[in-house]
Design brief:
alpha+beta; Arc Repressor Mutant, subunit A; Beta-Lactamase; 6-stranded antiparallel beta sheet; 3-stranded antiparallel beta sheet; transcription regulation; Tscrpt_reg_IclR_C; IclR family transcriptional regulator
């Protein structure tokens, strides 16, 4: 039987270096770009960021969206629900929180008749995990996104003010995206704002994220004494004085914090 020559022998694994990235690498590049963005990215923006042809990026995004690793919002794209859950973003930071918190959220909505938001930090954003609103709610950039930047929203600033690690990570950027003419974009300005929030226990944002929208928020602390969520109310900027609304929001946030601590103690004493 003739011995095969080296030219005739085909290796089981092609060890030649790839000259171009494959679909996996391209998909990872797109996911990294989506994860680093604070707003939905259009197809053109993703192509500029990843240097991929539009046809290739569009095809990969279709696969990512079908697997819930990305999702389309209007003409842009965001990380999908599956990707966020894999990253450890949960509906609440304390077990059993939703059942305990909802009555307070409902009471706050009935008291104010304005949009009520419950937010947790996620990828240097405020992610809204619960929202209550009526038919006449004020429109905001965060509608349909359920997320917003930390530096220009009341819920986000409340999280920043009382979470040193989160604050240090965000403040390391030094400069922040301007969303409206009222947005605080300097490090010194934001630090002064956060100091006021820690002093008074209430955060405000007047048309800093969306024109015509004002927000009030207060921190919610878990059984360990650290902030776990922020409770906020969004209202038209021309509505009643925000200071009065802040009293209601801070009272509801304090009641939730006390309930979380009380439940923790009860679970401790009832444990076998």
């Amino acid at each position: 039987m003739p011995t095969p020559t080296a030219r005739q022998v085909q290796p089981l694994i092609d060890e030649r270096p790839a000259s171009h990235p494959g679909s996996l690498e391209r998909g990872i590049d797109i996911l990294l770009a989506l994860g680093a963005a604070s707003r939905p990215l259009s197809l053109s923006e993703l192509c500029r960021s990843t240097r991929l042809p539009k046809s290739t990026a569009h095809r990969i995004l279709g696969v990512l969206c079908s697997r819930e690793l990305a999702r389309r919002v209007g003409n842009g794209y965001l990380p999908g629900e599956l990707l966020e859950s894999m990253a450890g973003i949960t509906r609440a930071r304390v077990p059993g929180t939703r059942r305990m918190v909802l009555p307070y959220l409902l009471y706050l909505y009935e008291t104010t008749r304005q949009t009520v938001n419950l937010a947790v930090p996620a990828n240097l954003e405020a992610r809204y995990v619960e929202r209550l609103y009526g038919h006449n709610r004020v429109s905001s950039r965060s509608d349909c996104l359920d997320r917003a930047p930390l530096h220009c929203t009341a819920t986000g600033k409340a999280l920043l003010a009382f979470d040193p690690g989160l604050r240090q990570e965000l403040l390391a950027r030094g400069v922040f995206e301007r969303m409206t003419h009222r947005t605080i974009t300097t490090l010194a300005g934001l630090e002064r704002e956060l100091a006021q929030i820690r002093r008074h226990g209430v955060a405000y944002a007047l048309e800093e994220y969306t024109e015509g929208v004002a927000c009030v928020a207060a921190p919610v602390f878990g059984p360990d004494g650290r902030i776990c969520m922020s409770l906020g109310v969004s209202t038209p900027a021309t509505a009643a004085p925000l200071a009065k609304l802040g009293i209601s929001v801070r009272g509801a946030a304090q009641a939730i914090s006390a309930a979380l601590v009380g439940t923790s103690r009860s679970d401790h004493w009832n444990a076998p």
